[in-house]
Structures are given as structure tokens and as C-alpha cells.
Amino acid sequence: MVKFLQLNLNHCRAAQDLLSQTVFEEEIDIAVLSEPYKSKAEGVWQQSADGGAAIWSCGQSPGHLSQRASRPGYARAKVQATTIYSCYLAPSLHIDAFRDILQEIARDARGRSPVLIAGDNAWSTAWGSSKTTQRGTILLDALATLDVCLLNDGARCTYSKAGRESIIDLTFASPELCRTSHWKVTDLLTYSDHAAIITQTTHSQQGPSLRQSAYKVHTLNADTLLSSMDGNVITGDANTCADILAARIKAACDAAMASSTRGNGRRPVPWWNHEISVARSECLSVSRRSCQRSRGRPTQALFETCYKEKKKALKIAIKTSKSRCFQELCDAADQEPFGSAYKLVMGKLYRPPTPTSQEQLGAIISTLFPSQPPLVLPNIAASEAIFIGARSTRYER
N or C: which end of the chain has fewer CB within 10 A? Predict the structure, then answer.
């Protein structure tokens, strides 16, 4: 099972700050983002060539995402068996460039299955918009060549600003994902004009599990471990012996150590506190919902003002807590150089993973070892014959 969160951050710092806590609380595995504020230090971050779209594997190891690619307008990555495309095509993009990028996405996705294509795209009545624009027609024509289905049900808008609502955040998926997935527009407070969309798929994935079993080494009982492994006689061929030995080692570890679970690396942000949690709850449950219910009524302006004040208070609370947390880390670093501050900084250092896609490996090899014309060695025997002939002619003269 993989849980995706799709969101347009609208280049908002507060929205990206809230995203870090949201993926922890909602147990998100992959975040498919548009217009990010900046790249995240935690996990694996794959961003498009123009920076408008990104795929964030929240806290995962570098090997969790494979076959990664960055192109203008979209980023691609593969998690387990599913290939993900995060797309953002800006409204200012020329219509011809819009068509070219969508056709390139369709060509790249053709032959890959299952796929999930998500992003901020265009208007069309096919997904509940009030009208179909030229971009919506181009999008439908491009994706018609792929075996994908639209997950949007058109019941709720995905974008809301100043009383205007629309459905422009779209999610397309292969039929095998559609049959086993749950898609919904959430009420989460995002600090963006766009709503957060969560897609949870139960499609059977190939590859390693998101959660791996582990043990708490400090709970090791050496006597129990040795007694569990003592007197084991294994017979059979090599494969049978290896399977039996692995099973017995696991049984011995289960008996000698307390089990643990290595999750997907999601951690709460260090600056989150009760004050911010209360401010977010007030902003979401009281102010925003009251503002939505008051539309078209005489009290609309009053509730909108209250909602803006609550949002501002939440933003100030986050900024204040982050500043205080940073100062505490600086003070801790002075007292203990290799303490929590050191570990936090070292954890944020990004080490690019080893590339796995043939396309990326080919580009690296062609850059490091550029092709050259074949080396033609001179014919030494012919050169000697010409030299000897020239000397003979000179002596005869």
C-alpha cells in the first residue's frame, strides 16, 4: 500500500512548513508537489528542470525512488512498481510549448505501467469545470493515447481564492491502480489556494516493502541467541540449506531481541508545538469553515477578516517557534558539539543516490567519455618502402 499526497504549494513558505507536519500526521509515503517553495532536505527530492514540479519521498532512503528524470514541466520517478509523474505547466506557458510538453509526457509514459500522473493543468467539463479551454482539449488528446483513467470525481473543487472555485488539480492513473485506490479532496489546512489531495492505493507492488523488520540491538540476550542456534543440523541442496538457515537465524533473533520496525522515515518537525497545533485547529475548524458557510451573506466580510487574522496568527506562531528552535540548537551546539544540532545538520546533508536508469547512466558515460573518431595507425611497412625507394633513386643519380 502506498499513500500519495498531491498539493500545489503556490511558492508559499508557510505551506511548505505545514507540509512537513502533514506528511507525518497523515502517514504519507510520496508527496507529488507543484510550485514548491524550495527543495526539502529530508528524504529524496526529485524536481523538474524548471523547478515547477517535484516528487518528494518523505524520509525515504535514496534507493526508494528509481528511474528518476527531470524535464521542463515535469519530474518522473518510480516507487516500487508505480511510475509517478509530477507535472506543472504554468498559465504563462505558450500553447505550443504546453502541447509539446504533454506530448513528451505521453511518449515517456507509454509502455510504463502502472503509472500515476498528477499536477496542476487545465480546465475541462470532463472533470467538472464550467467550461473546456484549449488547454483542456490538448490535455485530453495527449493522454488519450495512454491507458489511464481520471480519478477526479468533480464533486469538490480543488482550487479556491476570493470566492472563485475551480477544478484544476488532476490525477490520472492506470486502470489497475484505479480499481484498488481511494482518491479524495481533503479539508486539511494547507496555507495554499489549492486543496490537498490524498490517493491511497492498495495495488500489489513489486519490490521491497515500505516497512522493514528490524531489532533493538541493546536488548540482545546472547545466551538465548546461542542456545537457539545450538545443535542445528541442516541437510539438502544449497538453496534449501540457505532458506532453512535464514529462517532459523530469524527465529533466534526473534527470541533473543525485541523487535522494532523501520518505517519510512517520517518524523515530526522539531519546531511543532501545542500552540501551533491549537492555532491550526482554530484556523481550520472555526475560521475557515465559518467563512465558507457565510458566502453570500451580510456577515461574509466579517468572517473573512477573522479567517485572515487566524491565518496570520498561525504564520507568526510557526515563525516564532522556528526561530526559538534554531536558537536552542545553536546554544546546544556550543555546549555539546556532537549532540542533537550536529546530528540534525548531518541528517540534512544531501547525498545524491547512485543512478539506476539506463538513460541517466548513458548520459553520464557519454559526458565522461565522449566519442572520438577511430585512431588510424600509420602503415610502417609502406612508409619504409617509400623511404628506401627514395634513397635508391638518389644514389642512382
Answer: C
Compute how many other C-beta atoms are within 10 angstroms of the C-beta atom of residue 347.
12
50 and 178 belong to one structural domain: yes
For residue 89, the number of C-alpha atoms closer than 13 Å in the C-beta half-sphere is: 25
Report whether 344 contacts 329 (CB < 8 A): yes
- Grid coordinates standing for 338? 556532537
Q: Grid coordinates representing 5?
A: 499526497
**Structural domain count of the chain:** 3
Tell me: do 301 and 244 sit in the same domain: no
Q: Are 183 and 197 spatial neighbours (Cβ–Cβ below 8 Å)?
A: yes
One domain for residues 173 and 29:
yes
Cell 565522461 locates to 368
Q: Are residues 22 and 139 in the same domain?
A: yes
C-beta separation of 56 from 44 below 8 A: yes
Nearest to 116 by CA among 72, 70, 157, 147: 147
Q: Are 9 and 33 in contact (CB under 8 A)?
A: yes
Q: How far apart are CA 158 and CA 137, in angstroms?
A: 19
How many angstroms separate the Cα of 109 from the Cα of each of 54, 102, 115, 182, 200? 17, 10, 7, 22, 21
User: Which three cell numbers, joined as nine digits, stand for 36?
Assistant: 514548491
| 97, three cell numbers | 510549448
pTM for the full predicted model: 0.69
Residue 53 lies in a domain: yes
Instruction: List the chain pLDDT tens, one digit each, 397 residues.
Output: 788 999 999 998 889 988 988 888 888 889 999 999 888 766 688 899 999 999 998 865 545 778 888 899 999 999 888 999 999 999 889 999 999 999 999 999 998 889 999 988 788 888 888 888 999 999 999 998 898 999 988 888 888 877 778 888 999 999 989 888 899 999 888 888 899 999 998 755 554 444 456 788 888 888 888 888 876 677 778 878 888 888 888 888 888 888 775 555 566 788 888 888 888 888 877 666 666 666 667 777 777 788 788 888 888 999 999 898 888 888 888 887 777 777 766 665 545 556 666 777 888 888 888 888 887 776 666 666 665 666 566 555 5
